[in-house]
Design a protein that fits this description.
By secondary structure, the protein is of the alpha+beta class. It has a domain of 285 residues: 4-Layer Sandwich (Deoxyribonuclease I, Chain A), CATH 3.60.10.10. Helices cover 22% and strands 27% of the residues. Strands 2, 3, 5, 6, 14, 15 and 16 form a seven-stranded mixed beta sheet that branches. The protein is globular, with a radius of gyration of 22 Å. This is DNAse I-like superfamily protein. Pfam families: Exo_endo_phos2. Belongs to the inositol polyphosphate 5-phosphatase family. Keywords: Hydrolase.
C-alpha cells in the first residue's frame, strides 16, 4: 500500500512538473516573439527567474566560471608559455566551467573556407581537462560523458550510467568549434550525480566574410540543470577601430541573436519536436569573447590613462559600455565593473608592452589599447563574484574570466540530498562549497535576485 502511494505521488509530481515546463515554454516563446527584439532589447521589464515552488522542489546555489581568450592562432602543443592554471584557478572550485577561445587556428584562407579540423580543439580540451583535474592526481587523458560536439545531435537526458565514478572531478559535457571560435563546457562530477543535466545542444553562427564565413561569429551551448536552462555564447566579432566599425559589430550581434536556435525534442525523447529555443528563451544567459569593442579616445590619451591606472576615466570612452547604457545592442544585459588594464593589443609574445605608441617600432601595428575581451550576462538570479584578467603572455591578448553565483530549481531527490555538515562523504564533498539549499513551501514564491 505504501509503495502504491509513493508511486502515485511520483506520477502526480511528474504530471505537474511536465505541465509546468510546457507552460513555461509557451510563455518564453510568446515573450521572445512579442517582447524581445533581434538585438536583445528588452521592451518590458520582464523578470526572468520568478518561479512558483512546490513541495519536493529545491533551489540550490550554483557557481559558474566563464573565461575567454583570443590565442592569436597559436597551438598549445609543444609550447612552454601556455599555463592555464592562473586563468582557470581550479582551486576556487566552480560547478561549471565555460571556456571560450578565439583564433585557435590562424585565420587564413585554407582554415576559413576549408574543412573543419578538430585537432586544435582537441589539444585545448586536453589541456583544460588536465588543468581542472590535475590536483586530483588524474592523468592527462580525461574521460568524458561523450560530449555533444555536433549540431545534429543532442542529449535529451544524460544517461546516469555515463557518469563514471572515478577520480576525474570535471567531465567534458559539450564542445564546439567553428574555424577559430571554440567553446568548451565542463561540469563537476558531483553536480551530475545530484541533478539531471538535460537538453545539451550546440549551435554555430557564421557572420564573417560576406556575412556567412566562419572567421567571425559565435558558437553556443544550451543545456538545463534541473529545471533551469542556461545558454553560453562564445563570440568573435568584427575588428577595427575606425569610425563606424562598431556598427558592424552591432550588426553581427543582431545576426547572432536571429540565427541562434536550439531544436528540442518532445518530453520523453519522442519523435515530436517543439518550437526551437532562442537565446533569450533561456533562464540564465552568458555572452563572452573577443567582442572587439574599442575606445572613443585618441591613442596617446588612452595610453596616459592606462599609465595612471585611471580605469574609471577610461571606461567613459568604452564603446561597449555606451552600447549597454544607450541600448544600441545588449539592452538589459549586464557587465561587471572593469578594474583591470585593457587586454589588447600587446606588442609580441612574452611582452608586457602594448603594440604601437610613439615612436612605433618597425613592423608593429598601431593599435589603441582596448578592452576587447568581455563577459556579459542576462537574466535574474545571477550575481558576479569576480571579474579579472590573467597575465599569460602566450598571446597578444590577455585572458579574462568571471565567477558567477546563481541558483537552479530542481526536483528534490532522496538519494541526491546533500550530506549533513557533520558527516563526511568522499563522493560528494558538498559542505566544503558552503552551499545553501532552500526547501520552499508550495504557497511561497521565490524571485532570483
Amino acid at each position: 500500500m505504501e509503495r502504491k502511494c509513493r508511486t502515485l505521488k511520483a506520477k502526480r509530481f511528474e504530471s505537474w512538473f511536465l505541465g509546468k515546463q510546457k507552460r513555461a515554454d509557451l510563455f518564453r516563446r510568446s515573450e521572445t516573439s512579442e517582447v524581445r527584439t533581434d538585438d536583445g532589447r528588452n521592451k518590458n521589464d520582464f523578470s526572468i527567474g520568478s518561479l512558483e515552488m512546490s513541495p519536493g522542489v529545491i533551489s540550490e546555489e550554483l557557481r559558474i566560471f566563464v573565461g575567454t581568450w583570443n590565442v592569436a592562432g597559436r597551438s598549445p602543443v609543444g609550447s612552454l608559455d601556455v599555463d592555464l592554471a592562473e586563468w582557470l584557478n581550479p582551486n576556487d572550485t566552480a560547478d561549471i566551467y565555460v571556456i571560450g577561445f578565439q583564433e585557435i587556428v590562424p585565420l587564413k584562407t585554407a582554415t576559413v573556407i576549408g574543412a573543419e579540423d578538430q585537432t586544435e580543439a582537441t589539444n585545448w580540451n586536453l589541456l583544460i581537462g588536465k588543468t581542472l583535474n590535475d590536483k586530483y592526481g588524474c592523468p592527462w587523458l580525461t574521460p568524458t560523458v561523450h560530449p555533444v560536439t555536433n549540431e545534429n545531435y543532442q542529449y535529451n537526458r544524460v544517461p546516469s550510467k555515463q557518469i563514471s565514478k572515478d577520480q576525474h572531478r570535471y567531465k567534458l559535457m559539450a564542445s564546439k568549434k567553428m574555424v577559430g571560435v571554440f567553446i568548451s563546457v565542463w561540469i563537476r562530477r558531483e553536480l551530475l550525480e545530484r541533478h539531471e543535466v538535460t537538453h545539451v545542444q550546440v549551435c554555430s553562427v557564421a557572420c564573417g566574410i560576406m556575412g556567412y564565413l566562419g572567421n567571425k561569429g559565435s558558437v553556443s551551448v544550451s543545456l538545463s540543470v534541473g529545471g533551469t536552462s542556461f545558454c553560453f555564447i562564445a563570440a568573435h566579432l568584427a575588428s577595427g577601430e575606425k569610425k563606424g566599425d562598431e556598427g558592424r559589430r552591432n550588426c553581427q550581434v543582431s545576426k547572432i541573436f536571429r540565427r541562434t536556435f536550439f531544436p528540442r525534442l518532445s518530453e520523453g525523447g519522442g519523435t515530436g519536436k517543439l518550437q526551437p529555443l532562442s537565446i533569450l528563451g533561456h533562464d540564465r544567459i552568458f555572452w563572452f569573447g573577443d567582442l572587439n569593442y574599442r575606445l572613443y579616445l585618441e591613442d596617446n590619451l588612452a595610453r596616459q590613462l592606462i599609465k595612471e591606472q585611471d580605469w574609471e576615466a577610461l571606461r567613459k570612452f568604452d564603446q561597449l559600455r555606451r552600447e549597454l547604457e544607450h541600448g544600441g545592442v545588449f539592452q538589459g544585459w549586464k557587465e561587471g565593473k572593469i578594474e583591470f588594464a585593457p587586454t589588447y593589443k600587446y606588442s609580441a609574445y612574452n611582452c608586457n608592452r602594448y603594440s604601437g605608441g610613439i615612436p612605433c617600432r618597425a613592423g608593429e601595428k598601431q593599435r589603441t589599447p582596448a578592452w576587447c575581451d568581455r563577459i556579459l550576462w542576462y537574466g535574474k538570479g545571477v550575481r558576479q563574484l569576480s571579474y579579472f584578467r590573467s597575465e599569460s603572455k602566450f598571446s597578444d591578448h590577455r585572458p579574462v574570466s568571471a565567477l558567477f553565483s546563481t541558483h537552479i530549481v530542481a526536483k528534490k531527490c532522496k538519494h541526491r540530498d546533500a550530506p549533513s555538515p557533520d558527516k563526511s562523504n568522499k563522493n560528494c564533498k558538498f559542505s566544503q562549497f558552503n552551499r545553501k539549499t532552500l526547501y520552499v513551501c508550495s504557497e511561497e514564491k521565490i524571485s532570483m535576485k
